[in-house]
Amino acid sequence: MDKNQILQGASKYIEKFKDRVFVIKYGGSILDDKEISGSILDDIICLHENQIDVVLVHGGGSAISKLMKARGKEPEFVGGLRVTDEETASIVDEALSSVNAGLVERVISKGVDAVSLVSREKLTIKGRKKDSAPHGDFVGDVASIDAGHIDEAIKNHSISVVSPVGVGEDKKPYNINADLAAAEIAGFLSAEKFIMLTNVKGVMSKKDDDASLISTLKEKEVHKLIDEGIIDSGMIPKVQAGILALDKGVGKVHVISGRIPHSLLEEIFTDKGIGTEIVK
User: Fold this and answer.
1) Least CB-packed of 31, 89, 117, 211 within 10 Å?
2) Angstrom distance (rounded) from CA 177 to CA 212
3) What share of the chain is helix, strand, coil (3-state, %, to 5)?
4) What pLDDT digit, counting tens, does each position of 230-260 carry?
5) CA distance 185 to 178
6) In the chain, what are the domain boundaries?
């Protein structure tokens, strides 16, 4: 759908969501595609220009793997989680800080103020070792959120760009799943919406069949679809992050494709939407 077409019928939604907080998680391969990421950033800026308070939480797995290889470390994964010794945790922090700086620079180049929130410099995510992580591993969970810098950015009409790396009481970085970090931030802020941009259209009842897209899911239905194996693989942590956000008071969760031009605007500013919404 054309951007101008979407905005022509968007006035009721723009008024409804004015001064509300949207937390948007953006990562995966769509982060590495300049054309796609340019379209996504244009949509985010459009939300911002319509007085929606945007908090952008990013991933950056490919940037991490690239920097690890440059440092002579081979990326290793167990159960979908990156094995993260202390050196790797430092590399993760460095790589994602670079991704963060690049996103902030791109937003600012479009004439909108953006604030870099890397917890090593501006504490936002307090991390701790994940309970299931083996000794010496720095895979983390969110211990708590410090929203002071986000609140300040909102007050100053700036877009917050947040790295998901947490900092522990030991002052060391912890590698936290970006979906989880974004969900915790959305919950802490009581966000109106938590939106996850992905490589697929949303949750589908038949794998790889776009026609089987499920437009609306209730929380209890999500659990059932996981048990039945319909929701599987990489979609499981996303819907689990969505449920966490809902349980913490977020109004609605959206899982949408970042590969479709203006999917963000079409999901938010049209009656039909384009992806999957998850509600209580």
Assistant:
1) 211
2) 28
3) 40, 20, 35
4) 999 889 999 999 999 999 999 999 999 999 9
5) 10
6) 3-279
